[in-house]
Specification:
mainly alpha; 2 domains; Lysozyme; two-stranded antiparallel sheet
Length: 232
């Protein structure tokens, strides 16, 4: 990623960004002299438009310039924002996994992480986080997360949260907030105060057919993932 005040080519080292990383981040394609694909406006959502600008929409691109995938992650940014859970390099991950990781970058660095292409694509924090990476609308092959194919691993992450949001009738974005918690509480028929404690956990455990301990650990999450796979 290059700062908006210092557009540099991908074959040179960008200036460090404000982030939790010590090193370069995501490249700005236009700044690097990469041909911008025409017809950006046809893309189905904002991350497609960013990818059209950054990589001509090629989610598996690796040209050897130090940036990878449709959104042109550097190795350090990809790992620093959790992409390593999916693949060693961004171009080896699915489109949905790249978008999921890009949303983590967006939360910390804002649209300026893609200084040229965010402007061209109209990327904002709001519309970038509103995209659900785990639905077929992103063009993901072998989708994950909200259509009966959660990995039952006991880990609460964006995919499980997205499936929970779908189940409780909330906007699906993988970001678990207070209103999501209240909706969950209404779903399991306890007072919706937005605090998921023992009472809410017991009620959820009852619904999903798990031991009602009031403690939400990995076994509860596994039972929830199994339940969501069955009902969604």
């Amino acid at each position: 990623m290059a700062r908006a005040t210092s557009y540099v080519g991908r074959h040179r080292t960008p200036r460090p960004l404000r982030s939790r990383l010590a090193g370069p981040g995501i490249a700005g394609a236009a700044a690097a002299g990469v041909l911008i694909a025409p017809g950006v406006a046809h893309a189905e959502h904002v991350w497609d438009r960013v990818a059209d600008c950054e990589s001509s929409g090629n989610w598996s691109i690796n040209t050897g310039n130090g940036y990878y995938g449709g959104l042109q992650f550097s190795y350090s940014t990809w790992l620093g924002f959790g992409g390593g859970q999916y693949a060693s390099y961004a171009h080896q991950a699915s489109k949905a996994e790249q978008i999921d990781t890009a949303q983590e970058v967006l939360k910390v660095q804002g649209p300026g992480a893609w200084p040229v292409c965010s402007v061209r694509a109209g990327l904002t924090v709001s519309n970038g986080l509103a995209v659900n990476p785990w639905t077929d609308s992103t063009g993901t092959t072998g989708g994950t997360g909200t259509s009966g194919d959660l990995v039952v691993d006991g880990v609460l992450g964006p995919k499980t949260y997205s499936a929970m949001e779908k189940w409780i009738g909330r906007p699906v974005n993988g970001n678990w907030g207070t209103e999501d918690k209240k909706a969950l509480q209404r779903k399991v028929k306890v007072y919706p105060d937005g605090i998921v404690g023992p009472i809410t956990t017991k009620a959820l455990q009852r619904v999903i057919g798990h031991s009602q301990t009031g403690v939400w650990g990995s076994s509860t999450t596994k039972a929830l993932q199994t339940y969501l796979n069955r009902v969604l």
